[in-house]
Write a structure and sequence with these properties.
It is globular and about 55 Å long. The N and C termini lie far apart (41 Å). The chain has one domain: 3-Layer(aba) Sandwich (Rossmann fold), CATH 3.40.50. The N terminus is likely disordered. The longest helix is centred in the middle third of the chain and has 28 residues. The chain has a 5-stranded parallel β-sheet with strand order 2-3-1-4-5, with helices on both faces. By secondary structure, it is α/β, with parallel strands linked by helices.
Length: 228
């Protein structure tokens, strides 16, 4: 449930050291668009993958570093029997009370920033040809565009998103529509994209698009190498 866009300059200061030294790709898209499928394909091609949504899940899982802070701020009813964040309960709260979202973000964002920078530096040092940051709210945050060398948006019709999320997360249509309403519009994401990947269910077509994106990033790598 934890949101993954960053608002403070500190995360840029950490990652800005990588700018110009290794190509930085931002991968985004609305819920249910297929970001994980694309990042998995890029990973198979050799890219370093930093999934900020996965980090958000990890810090709010049982034993996650955010759990004691969430317990302190929101109370035990927001922790499920396994010791993880009760995501359904928190989702309902933050949609009703914007101030609750701010408190949650004040807890999670510094932790996500820290882990994102740590993993990015480790992957850069490991010899990956480029880094891919999977950021669901990349466009909404407004803080990534100056850092990244390329922005790729995974795109599909809104109805396809709704159907996928209902099936995957067992949410109601109303709940999914609320999530979509809180995200940037499809048009806003597309307008910020250097590359648009169309994911309407044909994996072969999507794989070909991902291969093209990979080649673009490798071209950026060659350009950086020749200018250094």
């Amino acid at each position: 449930m934890a949101s993954t866009h960053f608002n403070l300059p500190a995360d840029r200061a950490d990652l800005a050291n990588l700018k110009g030294n290794i190509p930085l790709l931002g991968l985004t898209g609305g819920i249910g668009s297929g970001k994980t499928t694309v990042s998995d394909l890029l990973g198979q091609l050799g890219a370093g993958i930093i999934d900020t949504d996965l980090i958000a899940h990890q810090i709010t899982a049982p034993g996650g570093v955010a759990i004691p802070l969430i317990l302190d701020q929101f109370g035990p009813e927001f922790i499920d029997p396994s010791g993880a964040l009760n995501r359904a309960k928190m989702r309902a709260l933050v949609f009703e009370k914007p101030e609750a979202r701010k408190i949650l973000e004040q807890i999670t964002h510094p932790l996500i920033r820290q882990e994102t920078a740590k993993r990015a530096l480790e992957l850069a040092q490991s010899g990956k040809p480029y880094l891919t940051f999977v950021v669901p709210l990349l466009i909404e945050s407004g803080n990534w565009q100056g850092l990244l060398d390329h922005i790729a948006v995974v795109d599909c019709p809104e109805e396809t998103q709704i159907e996928r999320v209902i099936k995957r997360n067992q949410l109601t249509r109303e709940a999914v529509e609320k999530i979509l309403a809180a995200q940037a519009s499809r048009e806003a994401r597309r307008s910020q994209a250097n590359t648009i990947l169309t994911n309407e269910g044909n994996l072969a077509d999507l794989s070909a698009e991902v291969q093209d994106l990979h080649e673009k990033m490798m071209d950026i790598k060659r350009t950086q190498a020749s200018s250094s």
